[in-house]
Amino acid sequence: MSTTIAVVLLLALAAYAVFGGADFGAGFWDLTAGGPEQGAAPRAVIDRSIGAVWEANHVWLIFIFVVTWSAFSPAYAAIMLTMYVPLTLAALGIVLRGSSFAFRKSVATLRYRRIFGGGFALSSVLVPFCMGAIAGGIASGQVPAGGKAGDPVDSWLNLASIVTGVFAVVVAAYLASVYLVRDARSAGDTAMVEYFRRRAVVTAVVAAVVAGVDLIVLNSKASYVFDGLMSRGLALVILSVLCGFGALVLLVRNAARGARVLAILAVASIIGSWGAAQWPYLLPESLKVSEAAAPDGTLTALLVAVGVALVLVVPGFVLLYLLHERQLLPEEGAEDVSDRSPAAR
């Protein structure tokens, strides 16, 4: 029973990485798009791409917290006790990101759009870095079990955490660029198709380099997880490499549809390989899944609740994405008005 719940939790993590990660990556490209005039076109594609779905994608994060808290409360408590600083930063970043994105689309003057745009872009980088740093800290044994708190700073600002945090930011940017290629093509914007395609190719190469560095660091700082990646998780590691390489080839050949599917599989395989590498531990070498699991009655009730939630929620997600894909949802935001306009003042 606990194994089934652990698999459900891992699938939810993969879903959040694939959907929510792409939203954060879009913020990275917003940050690097340039000034108001130079960055107007890519930011328009970004706004159109995530405007209808960015709120919905955080349902997966809420699901992850609820399942971990209900099914594996000792692990949840240990992570919260040690990682409260990056978790707080991530929570504040998610709130700042969402509010800034919403207000940027509603205000009329360029001055305030810049302020809210900066909040959206910077927090879009902060959140995946914190998430990756937490994963790196867990993998490297920085989270002790048994109700003891680890170091609130060193636990997520160590070498393994920093490299994994950077890797999370790069992967999010890569996913977003691949999605944005497809979205720009659907809108018939050939200039933006090429703009994001070039960035997707470059980011794919950067992601591969950072992944290699991360493996080297894990070998020295998180040997249990590294050994697991080379054994239990090796098939998924190979799948991720093959899918990533295939996506890169398709991007070079300007085949956006296939590239998006392969990019999703590559990122989902990374999450899956991490879970397999840590098995049977939630906290490597200190807390096993079976040791942290709630009683069977609780796990059974949780599985029933998860099944009901999937039946009620997944069709809504599918409908949302289909309507968004076919551009059948209304656009939001205020008409852009110059700062020099008396009415805007």
UniProtKB/TrEMBL annotation:
<dbReference type="InterPro" id="IPR003317">
    <property type="entry name" value="Cyt-d_oxidase_su2"/>
</dbReference>
<keyword id="KW-1133">Transmembrane helix</keyword>
<keyword id="KW-1003">Cell membrane</keyword>
<feature type="transmembrane region" description="Helical">
    <location>
        <begin position="230"/>
        <end position="252"/>
    </location>
</feature>
<feature type="transmembrane region" description="Helical">
    <location>
        <begin position="299"/>
        <end position="323"/>
    </location>
</feature>
<feature type="transmembrane region" description="Helical">
    <location>
        <begin position="159"/>
        <end position="180"/>
    </location>
</feature>
<feature type="transmembrane region" description="Helical">
    <location>
        <begin position="116"/>
        <end position="139"/>
    </location>
</feature>
<comment type="similarity">
    <text>Belongs to the cytochrome ubiquinol oxidase subunit 2 family.</text>
</comment>
<feature type="transmembrane region" description="Helical">
    <location>
        <begin position="75"/>
        <end position="96"/>
    </location>
</feature>
<dbReference type="GO" id="GO:0019646">
    <property type="term" value="P:aerobic electron transport chain"/>
</dbReference>
<keyword id="KW-0812">Transmembrane</keyword>
<dbReference type="GO" id="GO:0016682">
    <property type="term" value="F:oxidoreductase activity, acting on diphenols and related substances as donors, oxygen as acceptor"/>
</dbReference>
<feature type="transmembrane region" description="Helical">
    <location>
        <begin position="259"/>
        <end position="279"/>
    </location>
</feature>
<keyword id="KW-0472">Membrane</keyword>
<dbReference type="GO" id="GO:0070069">
    <property type="term" value="C:cytochrome complex"/>
</dbReference>
<protein>
    <submittedName>
        <fullName>Cytochrome d ubiquinol oxidase subunit II</fullName>
    </submittedName>
</protein>
<dbReference type="Pfam" id="PF02322">
    <property type="entry name" value="Cyt_bd_oxida_II"/>
</dbReference>
<dbReference type="GO" id="GO:0005886">
    <property type="term" value="C:plasma membrane"/>
</dbReference>
<feature type="transmembrane region" description="Helical">
    <location>
        <begin position="200"/>
        <end position="218"/>
    </location>
</feature>
<dbReference type="GO" id="GO:0009055">
    <property type="term" value="F:electron transfer activity"/>
</dbReference>
